[in-house]
Design a protein that fits this description.
Elements (H helix, E strand, L loop, with lengths): L1 H28 L11 E9 L4 E9 H12 L10 H15 E4 L8 E8 L1 H6 L3 E9 L6 E5 L10 E8 L2 E8 L5 E3 L1
Parallel strand pairs: 1-7
Antiparallel strand pairs: 1-2, 2-5, 3-6, 4-5, 6-9, 7-8
InterPro entries: DUF6702 (IPR046525)
Pfam families: DUF6702
């Protein structure tokens, strides 16, 4: 009985201590992951492919930001260069399913299908590498959907996510801030 009381009352403390230890190790194992940059922004494009009946999405994020988001979400070390590709990709997909949400006109969330990722070589040369995430979203109708892009909002209060949506000749620019909600795409 005493041990149950002790573990149940310390559980939040133990989890907080565990996260502290993980972040402390991260600072030594991969110091670039904790380097801050002034710009907290992601950019993306979402285009309707009439042949496949899917939205094709490319989302560009800073590598150190996505690594930090994954480490916090999964409470384990996940680095682009050190984690097996399948494990890293699964973690990113799981993260996206809760932060990049597209719903149809009835409010039903669409499933995200992972396509892959690509490290931008030019950004690596500048010293602040970015990663392009590619995925698809299948929806029976491309009209009347709501898009919510909350990627990295849990990390930075000033995070801004820019997204350009195109369907044929129609195009809409969207900007998502931390306090904002989903945006209707007609």
């Amino acid at each position: 009985m005493r041990s149950d009381l002790l573990t149940s009352s310390l559980h939040p403390i133990i989890l907080g201590w565990r996260m502290f230890c993980i972040l402390w190790v991260v600072s030594f194992v991969n110091p670039t992951s904790l380097q801050a940059h002034d710009l907290h922004q992601s950019t993306g494009e979402m285009e309707w492919n009439a042949e496949t009946q899917k939205w094709e999405v490319s989302l560009t994020v800073f590598v150190n930001d996505i690594e930090l988001a994954l480490i916090r979400r999964f409470e384990k070390l996940l680095f682009l260069e050190k984690t097996p590709a399948a494990e890293f990709d699964t973690a990113v997909l799981t993260y996206l399913t809760t932060t990049f949400i597209v719903t149809d006109a009835e409010g039903i969330p669409a499933k995200i299908e992972w396509v892959g990722r690509e490290l931008e070589s030019e950004s690596t040369k500048r010293g602040d590498p970015t990663l392009v995430l590619y995925f698809q979203i299948a929806l029976p109708q491309p009209q009347g959907l709501h898009v919510k892009n909350a990627v990295l909002h849990e990390l930075f209060e000033d995070q801004i996510n820019l997204l350009r949506c195109r369907r044929g000749s129609a195009e809409k620019q969207m900007m998502f801030k931390r306090q904002g909600g989903a945006i209707l795409y007609p």
